[in-house]
Design a protein that fits this description.
The complex is a heterodimer of chains A (479) and B (251). Chain A is an alpha/beta fold and 479 residues long. Chain A has helices spanning 34-43, 48-61, 102-111, 115-122, 130-146, 153-159, 161-167, 178-186, 426-434, 439-455, 460-473; strands spanning 149-152, 191-195, 205-206, 221-226, 231-237, 248-249, 252-257, 262-269, 283-292, 297-304, 309-312, 315-318, 324-333, 338-341, 344-347, 353-363, 367-376, 384-394, 399-408, 414-423. The longest helix of chain A has 17 residues, at 130-146. The termini of chain A are far apart. The chains are: A alpha/beta (479), B alpha/beta (251). The A-B interface holds A 422, 425-428, 430-439, 441, 445-446, 448-450, 452 and B 48-51, 71-73, 75-77, 81-82, 84, 87-88, 90-94, 97-99, 101-102, 105-106, 109, 141, 158, 162.
Chain lengths: 479, 251
């Protein structure tokens, strides 16, 4: 019952820089068998329960069929042609930021990425940069004092197995969907966060601050737990264009907000989107979900500009009474990018509220779909939901689609849905030009005005970078 | 400042301008009047560089430069301002932000240092007073939810902020009541100087009671059929556009 489909090599050679055919001892051979799973678990020195969980997931995966219902199209993936484990390679370290390819440096500067972060992104040897060492160390100390755990998933499995055993898979069970199941079997690494009762995490957490953060690889697994009354804001990704030799990224993120807790999760994603003809590019097939207990609050904010295909529905299970779920998204598709993204808000508790603001921007030949579910179960009294899906079309060869689903089983629910479709008209462009504003700046102004409500949800420095990222991603799309 | 010689232009294969000749010097106010379809708005669009208009003959020299070779943005940065007949709405972009971007690009083009936020705000407040606009209106999206009169006043406000050398007012008075008209005209009069020039395109004589022109030109079927001083406007009001067509036929 192995997957029989055949892969066509899509990526071109330019995209595979740094790839070597010599298998280091630390890499599994291509393909996926039970041995691969055991190899991965052994390499990571995982406790028995973890291996068993992985195997359970793998055996279930073998029985599953890859879903095809999304409004995205891609050639079949050959799962036997993927390397499912490779040890963190010691990537070529630079001695200073000046050694970085000037084109890449220029992009970092245009995005306004702080120099300290640029060093990290460029892979400048950590001991060559005093700043990032001292910043990260002070950071770690501060968090430690508060009892906050922030480490890699691999470390968490070894150091905090009780928390992992209790919470891993509790929001996204291993049998949830094809890609989540695959992830459960072969997940590489990711972030683990635990905030103790009543603690408000004093700073935005992001992977940047985990020094020696290994290449988390294509099957990232993140688990964030905010205990009762706790608060945490987590940032994933960065505006810098990210390249990866792996095409398929099937990550799983689980968020847990216990009674009276709050979790804010922000993502800025700029994975390699493929070239102008649509060749290559990362497939970002992600399962993200959170669960809210009583009076808890959770918000997902995403700015997706990269990847060849983006397929994800960050959702919230509003289990506890009075809990609140929010979803803010700007998803851009340019050239030949495709996106089928949205959210799922499942109202189980009473007096729960959800808010959905989705802004799609389609340019070039891009194809953008919003797919959202608002589900209200029978006993969920007094639910309030507000959804707003807007599409902005730039040019006449792109597509925007909306697939809203409402499954309401309680008659006291108040559910509102608004949708608009617009384009940047020639009249608006001429008006801007007649005031001396160049075409590119006019597009940037208009797109930022359009996306403002979502960008305002991001932590400030991220918001400024995201604004610039939107403008840069749209270059050449009008005209 | 502006020299238009035998300008012919067409849109969608229809020739609208059939040989316009006009000289505008700094410090002057020229009024262009004419019946519907005479080419008034086309002239404004061609001068501003709007897409879709093809110049088939003639030339336009602005401050010694060939205007027709410049992009619309560059024409604006060189000091040409068009007050639109139907100003568009730009959702999500505040008037303040819009003008900040425009002014900053113009200054960069001219090699000037950028305006500090303080200087910009000061300018914003004083110009807003000129056209009796509340400053909190400026943080709203450009023209969104504005009444017709407010949109026209916003055009003059932008004019005041951009400080152009050549302003073209395209039927700024259309759709305005007497009070709005007064505010717009007063704004223009305060901005007039020996260094700038205005081309006021209007259908009705009424506006010219407030903005006194130095020259009046009457456009008919793509050509200027007669020119004169401000009294010409009164004559036109009295005799109507039929008289103009007669003039054209006689030619």
């Amino acid at each position: 019952m192995e997957n029989e489909e055949i892969l066509e090599k899509i990526s071109d050679s330019e995209y595979k820089y740094g790839f070597s055919n010599d298998f280091e001892l630390d890499a599994a051979p291509k393909g996926l068998t039970e041995d691969t799973i055991r190899f991965i678990s052994a390499k990571k020195e995982e406790p028995e329960f973890m291996l068993n969980w992985r195997l359970k997931a793998y055996r279930h995966w073998l029985k599953m069929v890859e879903p095809k219902w999304a409004n995205v199209h891609y050639p079949p993936i050959n799962y036997q042609d993927i390397i499912f484990y490779s040890a963190p390679k010691n990537a070529k370290k630079l001695n200073s930021i000046d050694d970085l390819d000037p084109e890449i440096k220029k992009t970092y500067d245009r995005l306004g990425i702080p120099l300290v972060e640029q060093n990290f992104l460029a892979g400048v040897a950590v001991d060559a940069v005093m700043d990032s060492v001292s910043v990260a160390t002070t950071y770690k100390e501060k968090l430690g004092e508060l009892g906050i755990i922030f480490c890699s998933m691999s470390e968490a499995v070894q150091l905090h197995p009780e928390l992992i055993e209790k919470y891993l898979g509790s929001v996204v069970p291993y049998l949830d969907n094809f890609f989540a199941t695959l992830n459960s079997a072969v997940f590489s690494d990711g972030s683990f966060v635990y905030i103790p009762k009543g603690v408000r995490c004093p700073m935005e957490l992001s992977t940047y601050f985990r020094i020696n953060a290994a290449n988390t690889g294509q099957f990232e697994r993140t688990l964030i737990i905010a205990d009762e009354g706790a608060y945490v804001s987590y940032l994933e990704g960065c505006t810098a264009p990210m390249r990866d030799e792996n095409q398929l990224h099937a990550a799983v993120v689980e968020l847990i907000a216990l009674d009276n807790a709050e979790v804010k999760y922000s993502t800025v994603q700029n994975w390699y989107p493929g070239d102008k003809e649509g060749k290559g590019g990362v497939y970002n097939f992600v399962t993200k979900r959170g669960i809210c207990y009583k009076n808890a609050k959770m918000s997902w904010t995403q700015v997706e500009t990269g990847s060849s295909i983006t397929w994800k529905y960050p959702g919230v299970i509003l289990k506890g009474d009075n809990s609140i779920g929010e979803f803010y998204s700007v998803a851009m598709t340019n050239n030949y990018q495709q996106a089928d993204t949205g959210t799922k808000m499942v109202h189980m508790g009473k007096n729960t509220k959800s808010r959905i603001v989705s802004k799609g921007i389609s340019a070039g030949h891009g194809n953008n779909s919003y797919r959202g579910l608002v589900k209200v179960t029978k006993n969920a009294d007094n639910v309030r939901n507000y959804s707003q899906c807007d599409s902005l079309l730039m040019g006449d060869r792109c597509g925007a689609h909306t697939f809203p689903y409402f499954d309401i089983k309680n008659s006291t629910a108040i559910v509102e849905h608004e949708a608009t479709t617009s384009k940047i008209s020639e009249d608006i462009m001429f008006y801007c030009k007649q005031r001396g504003i160049s075409q590119e700046d006019a597009v940037a102004l208009i797109v930022n005005g359009y996306a403002k409500e979502v960008l305002n949800q991001l932590p400030m420095e991220f918001a400024v970078e995201a604004q610039k990222l939107l403008a840069i991603s749209l270059e050449g799309s009008v005209g | 400042m502006l020299s238009i010689r035998n300008l012919k232009a067409k849109v969608e294969d229809r020739e609208i301008l059939k040989g316009i000749n006009l000289e505008v010097k700094a410090g002057e106010v020229h009024a262009i009047m004419g019946p519907n379809g005479s080419g008034k708005s086309t002239l404004a669009s061609v001068l501003a560089g709007k897409e879709g208009y093809v110049v088939t003959e003639g030339e336009v020299i602005y401050k010694g430069k060939n205007l027709l070779e410049l992009s619309p943005e560059d024409r604006a940065r060189e000091g040409i301002f068009l007050a639109f007949q139907y100003p568009v709405e730009i959702p999500g972009v505040s008037t303040t932000n819009f003008l900040k971007t425009a002014i900053s690009e113009k200054r960069k083009y001219l090699g000037l240092a950028p305006l500090s936020s303080v200087e910009f705000l000061k300018m914003l407040k004083s110009k807003a007073k000129l056209v009796e606009i509340e400053t909190d209106m400026l943080s709203r999206s450009v023209n969104v939810g504005f009444s017709g009169g407010e949109k026209k006043r916003n055009e003059i406000f932008q004019l005041a902020m951009m400080n152009p050398e050549l302003s073209i007012l395209d039927e700024t008075d259309s759709g305005l009541d007497i009070d709005a008209l007064r505010i717009v005209a007063e704004g223009v009069n305060k901005l007039k100087s020996p260094d700038n020039a205005f081309v006021v395109i209007t259908h009705y004589q009424r506006l010219l009671n407030y903005i006194i022109p130095d020259y009046v030109h009457v456009l008919n079927d793509g050509q200027i059929v007669t020119s004169g001083g401000k009294e010409l406007a009164f004559k036109l009001e009295e005799l109507g556009y039929d008289w103009v067509e007669q003039l054209a036929d006689n030619k």
